[in-house]
Amino acid sequence: MNEQKVALITGANKGLGYETARQLGKQNIKVLIGARDETRGREAAEKLLAEGCDAEFILLDVGDEKTHEAAAKYVAENYGKLDILVNNAGIVLESLSGTPSDVSLETLRKTFDTNFFGVIAVTKAFLPLIKKSEGGRIVNVSSGLGSLAQNSDANCDYAAVKPLAYNSSKTALNAFTVILAHELKEANIKVNSADPGYTATDLNGNQGTKTVEQGASVITDLATLPNDGATGGYFDDEGVVPW
Ligand SMILES: NC(=O)c1ccc[n+]([C@@H]2O[C@H](COP(=O)([O-])OP(=O)(O)OC[C@H]3O[C@@H](n4cnc5c(N)ncnc54)[C@H](OP(=O)(O)O)[C@@H]3O)[C@@H](O)[C@H]2O)c1
């Protein structure tokens, strides 16, 4: 068995995924840079290699199950296990200040395809390999915008930010976290949702108030939890986020 931990991060060619890969790579974890575009993925892996991280590009389009199968086969043949899966890839297709009742069903479906169904499909493809790890970790990159508690709190800082498709896709993702964590509770596989906070990336036109280093820190922490760490939880860099 390969002693070095192996992590796969989806959507790792930029933003929070890239920074999470960098932080994990700095901990001597092999980082597989999941990206749907070969050029962007290879460039990201090369940049990380130049920084001293053991990084490798792997083609993975969250919406294309053939790439999940091929990637899982590659990981099985070359590493025999997967220790960490970071389901980071995500999209927002509507205006953050839009009116929920105006969101089209097409936008809802496309958003859920990536942010929810895609995460489940990727996780299912890699679960047999995660079960071969001595202590698997799955981090679903959610958002505070997926919290029903925060959505229903008029005093929340982001009370006015209600893009229906995005927020509800992250709420559904949180449900996946809780339910999968329950299934895996005896398997030493921890499943948690991370809320990186409002982080400057292309997702929000780089308007976020946190740096990617700050935003990715909770994802990295959940990806490297000790064996007595939490599972089935929802965390930001200050602690527990209310569901
Ligand atoms: N930034 C924030 O303030 C914030 C706050 C809370 C949660 N989040 C969450 O953090 C995660 C990362 O977002 P980010 O802010 O880093 O955004 P970003 O810079 O736009 O990065 C998104 C990444 O996801 C990838 N992606 C999108 N669809 C994909 C698909 N079908 N298959 C594979 N990769 C795909 C993108 O690849 P391409 O380059 O090919 O498009 C890109 O690498 C998302 O889940 C987001 O919801 C972000």
Got a strand count?
A: 8
CATH class: Alpha Beta
Using the 3D structure, state the CATH architecture. Answer: 3-Layer(aba) Sandwich
Computed Rg: 17 Å
- As laid out across the biggest beta sheet, the strand order is 3-2-1-4-5-6-7-8
Task: Average the pLDDT over all residues and give the rounded result.
Answer: 97
Mind telling me the CATH superfamily name? Answer: NAD(P)-binding Rossmann-like Domain
CATH topology-level name: Rossmann fold
Give the distinct bound molecules. Answer: NADP nicotinamide-adenine-dinucleotide phosphate
SS field, number of helical segments: 7
The computed structural class is alpha/beta
How are the SSEs placed, and which strands pair?
Elements: E1 6-9, H1 15-25, E2 30-35, H2 38-50, E3 55-59, H3 65-78, E4 84-87, H4 105-130, E5 136-141, H5 148-151, H6 164-183, E6 189-194, H7 212-223, E7 234-236, E8 239-240
Parallel strand pairs: 1-2, 1-4, 2-3, 4-5, 5-6, 6-7
Antiparallel strand pairs: 7-8
Tags for this model:
7 helices; 243 residues; alpha/beta; Rossmann fold; binds NADP nicotinamide-adenine-dinucleotide phosphate; globular
Please tell me about this protein's structure:
By secondary structure, the chain is of the alpha/beta class. It has helices at 15-25, 38-50, 65-78, 105-130, 148-151, 164-183, 212-223, and strands at 6-9, 30-35, 55-59, 84-87, 136-141, 189-194, 234-236, 239-240. It has a single domain, classed as 3-Layer(aba) Sandwich (Rossmann fold). Strands 3-2-1-4-5-6-7-8 form an 8-stranded mixed sheet, sandwiched between helices. Helix 1 packs across helix 7 (212-223) and helix 4 packs parallel to helix 6 (164-183). Bound molecules: NADP nicotinamide-adenine-dinucleotide phosphate. NADP nicotinamide-adenine-dinucleotide phosphate (NAP) binds at residues 10-11, 13-17, 36-37, 40, 61-63, 88-91, 114, 141, 143, 196, 198-199, 201-204, 208.
